[in-house]
Amino acid sequence: MNNQTVQQLSPYKVVLFSTILLLACVSLSFVLMKSGLNQVWMLNIHATPVLPAWFWALINLGGDAWVILLILLLIERFPGEITSWVLKTWLIGALVSLVIKNTLPMPRPASVLGVDNLSIIDHPPLLSGSMPSGHALAAISCALIVCTVLKLRGVQNGYLWLIALAAGIAAWARVAVGAHWPSDVIAGAGLAFSVVAFAFLWEQHTSWNAWFQRTRGGVFLIALHILISLHLATPQSDFFFVQFAQFNLACISLMRAMLLVRKYFWLRSQ
Asked: CB within 8 A of 183, min separation 6: which ones?
């Protein structure tokens, strides 16, 4: 993130706001787990699905960590604008989610309620590692960064609320497909605020953006986009709409890699 952007955000307010939201989400998640409302809510959701399965399968793609990374890299006006903040958020989020899942290996809904009582969509994990929802953490983190960047660019609040709503639906899709409890999604959303805030503070102290503007950083970004493209080229759903969306995203990532090759090597050689 450039210095002008950093100066427009107050570290104290960022930390205070993220801490309050984290505590609120964790508290609500704890209440749901201890009261039994978690299971009741889950069963009610799957007893009367509101939207078709293909919709939730498609929206579920919006919480995929690689899709989120692609979206965040695409909103940059140039490499090194917010690349450092994005990658730090991505790395911290992945680490935090992995540590909690392995430290607190909570059972998935299907292993407690039974597969027959849930309307499972596609092939979500069914055993342990339920808490927190990594998809929810990724989707909300993405929305926070996108909304922050667009707000500083002067985008109207109405569009930002639409982005927040889309991220919330993408996070909730993990409940709809049967992969997570409502408490997992709420906890993941709360963690997102702290992860983005911590990455922001790290970015204020040390930024990698200057490196990403050099040739070696460009090579890294080109390789990263190729990896994203390869990941998305592998079908993750039985639904055609999801496979079609993945294919298009894979093409976009590959095209981005080609544009970066042009920027870092072909144009500089002229």
From this structure: 28, 29, 30, 32, 33, 38, 131
Q: Which CATH architecture has domain 3-209?
A: Up-down Bundle (1.20)
Share above pLDDT 70 across residues of the chain, in percent, rounded to a whole number = 95
Domain locations in the chain as residue ranges: 3-209
> Cis before residue 124, ω within 30 degrees of 0?
no
User: Rounded CA gap, 135 and 180, in Å?
Assistant: 10
For 93, phi then psi, to 5°, come to -60, -45
pLDDT digits (tens, 9 = 90+) for 164-187: 999 999 999 999 999 999 999 999
For tokens 């107050």, the residue is 10
- The three-class DSSP label of residue 50 is coil
Are 253 and 232 in contact by the 8 Å Cβ rule? The answer is yes
- Name the nearest CA neighbour of 85 among 215, 163, 195: 195
User: d(Cα 159, Cα 178) in Å, to the nearest integer?
Assistant: 30
